[in-house]
Design brief:
By secondary structure, the protein is mainly beta. Helix content is 9%, strand content 29%. It folds into two domains: 18-159, Jelly Rolls (Sandwich); 183-256 and 261-398, Jelly Rolls, CATH 2.60.120.
Length: 401
C-alpha cells in the first residue's frame, strides 16, 4: 500500500516556472517591478551566457510571456556569437555598430545598425554584435519569448543547445534580409481595430493631410510595414491615425517576416493623452525618443501607480490593469510596442475595456493639467470631450498646436 510519504515529489513547471528556474541560475542583475524608468541606466553586470555586461528586465506584466534584457557592447569590442532556438528582436538604445547573422555552416550576412535601429534575429541563427565606436558603449534591447516557450517545454537544452535551423529564413526567398527597404502589406485573418477616424499620414508638414488610405479604412485588416531591418525608428514617418473615440493617435505597425511578434510605433502628440483601457498582458512599451510625460496603471478598484515617462522607459501593463499614457512635454512622444503572440496580447471583448473621458476619474485630468503647468504648458484635450459622450473625435485635433 502506498503511503503519503512514499509519493515522490515532482516539479510543477507552472508553479515553479522553468523560466524562473533558468533565470535564477543566470549571473546577471535582474530588475523586477512594473516598469523601469530608463533601461539604459539600469545596473548591469557581467553575464556569462552573453559574454558582456547586461541587465535582465523581468516585469510583472511579462510573467510567463516575454523575456527582456539589455546588453552593453564595450567600445570597439565584439561580443561573442550567440544563438538560441527562439527568435529575438533587437532595438538599439545607444551607439552604432555592425551585426553579423548566419546559420551554422552558411555565409554571414552583415549590416550596420545605429541608435534607433530595429531588427530581428531568426530562430537559432548565430548573431554577433560589434560596437563601431571606440569612445562609448553601445546598448541594445532584446526581446524574446523564452518564458512563454519554457512554459510549454522546460528543457533548457532545447533552446540553448539545439542544432536545428531553417536556412530558408535567411538564405531563401527572403534573400533581401536586412536591407532597409520595407514595404506596405495588409494583414489577413484578423479584424481591424481602426475606427471611422479619417486616416491621414503623419507628415513633417503639419498642413499636409493625404486622403484616407485603402489600408487604414479597410474592414479586412490593418496595414503593416513588412521588413526585417528598420534603420531608424525615430524618423520613421509612414504612420497613420488609428484608434476609436478618445483613443486617436498616430501609429505604424511593423511586421517581421516569419515572426510571432506584432510590433509597431505609437506616436502621441504633445499635450494630449488617450482614454484608459485594459487588455491581456505581454505588451512591452519602450520609450524611444526624448519625452516628458507619465504613465498611470491600476488594477480595477486599486490605487494608481504613477510611472515617469522618458526615453529608455519600459512598461508592461499587467493582465487587465487599466493604463493610460500622458504626453506633458512640448514634443511628440514616440513609443515602440512589442506584443506577444495572440491570444496572449489579444484585446478581449470586455465592454469595460475603454474608459470614456466622460466617465474618467476627475483626478486624472487634474493630474495631467498640473504636470503640464509644471512645464509651462496647457492641455490640448477638447473641453467637450470630457462632457459630451457623443463628442466626435476628429483626427485633426491631433495636429492642433
Ligand atoms: Fe494598452
Amino acid at each position: 500500500m502506498t503511503t503519503e510519504s512514499a509519493i515522490p515529489e515532482v516539479i510543477d513547471f507552472w508553479r515553479n516556472h522553468a523560466y524562473d528556474g533558468w533565470l535564477a541560475k543566470q549571473d546577471v542583475p535582474v530588475h523586477r517591478g512594473y516598469y523601469v524608468e530608463d533601461a539604459r541606466a539600469l545596473e548591469r553586470g557581467w553575464w556569462s551566457l552573453r559574454g558582456c555586461p547586461a541587465a535582465v528586465i523581468s516585469l510583472e506584466g511579462n510573467r510567463g510571456i516575454e523575456h527582456l534584457h539589455v546588453l552593453e557592447i564595450p567600445p570597439g569590442e565584439t561580443i561573442p556569437p550567440f544563438r538560441m532556438a527562439l527568435e529575438e528582436i533587437i532595438y538599439v538604445f545607444e551607439g552604432n555598430g555592425i551585426a553579423s547573422v548566419w546559420a551554422e555552416g552558411q555565409p554571414k550576412v552583415t549590416f550596420e545598425w545605429q541608435k534607433h535601429s530595429f531588427f530581428r534575429i531568426p530562430v537559432n541563427y548565430y548573431y554577433e554584435l560589434s560596437n563601431a565606436r571606440g569612445d562609448q558603449p553601445a546598448i541594445t534591447f532584446h526581446v524574446n519569448l523564452l518564458p512563454m516557450a519554457m512554459g510549454t517545454n522546460p528543457s533548457e537544452d532545447c533552446f540553448f543547445n539545439n542544432p536545428y535551423v531553417d536556412v530558408s529564413q535567411l538564405y531563401g526567398n527572403e534573400a533581401k534580409f536586412y536591407s532597409a527597404a520595407a514595404r506596405p502589406v495588409r494583414l489577413s485573418g484578423q479584424a481591424s481595430f481602426s475606427s471611422g477616424a479619417r486616416a491621414m499620414q503623419h507628415a513633417a508638414n503639419p498642413g499636409a493631410v493625404t486622403p484616407a488610405t485603402e489600408a487604414a479604412s479597410s474592414p479586412t485588416g490593418p496595414m503593416r510595414w513588412y521588413g526585417n531591418f528598420f534603420p531608424d525608428l525615430s524618423v520613421w514617418d509612414k504612420l497613420e491615425v488609428y484608434g476609436g473615440a478618445g483613443r486617436l493617435t498616430y501609429g505604424g505597425g511593423i511586421f517581421f517576416p516569419g515572426s510571432a511578434f506584432s510590433t509597431g510605433l505609437m506616436v502621441l502628440p504633445s499635450r494630449r493623452y488617450r482614454a484608459g483601457h485594459r487588455h491581456a498582458a505581454g505588451v512591452t512599451i519602450v520609450g524611444i525618443q526624448e519625452a516628458e510625460g507619465f504613465v498611470l496603471m491600476w488594477r480595477e478598484g486599486g490605487d494608481y501607480l504613477v510611472a515617469p515617462w522618458r526615453e529608455g522607459a519600459v512598461f508592461v501593463p499587467p493582465y487587465h490593469w487599466y493604463h493610460m499614457h500622458f504626453n506633458t512635454g512640448a514634443v511628440e512622444n514616440r513609443q515602440l510596442r512589442i506584443r506577444a503572440p495572440r491570444p496572449g496580447a489579444n484585446p478581449t471583448a470586455d465592454l469595460e475595456r475603454v474608459i470614456p473621458f466622460t466617465k474618467q476619474d476627475p483626478w486624472i485630468r487634474q493630474k495631467f493639467e498640473e504636470e503640464l503647468a509644471n512645464n509651462g504648458l496647457t492641455s490640448l484635450m477638447p473641453e467637450e470631450g470630457y462632457t459630451n459622450p457623443d463628442f466626435e473625435w476628429d483626427a485633426e485635433w491631433l495636429k492642433d498646436d
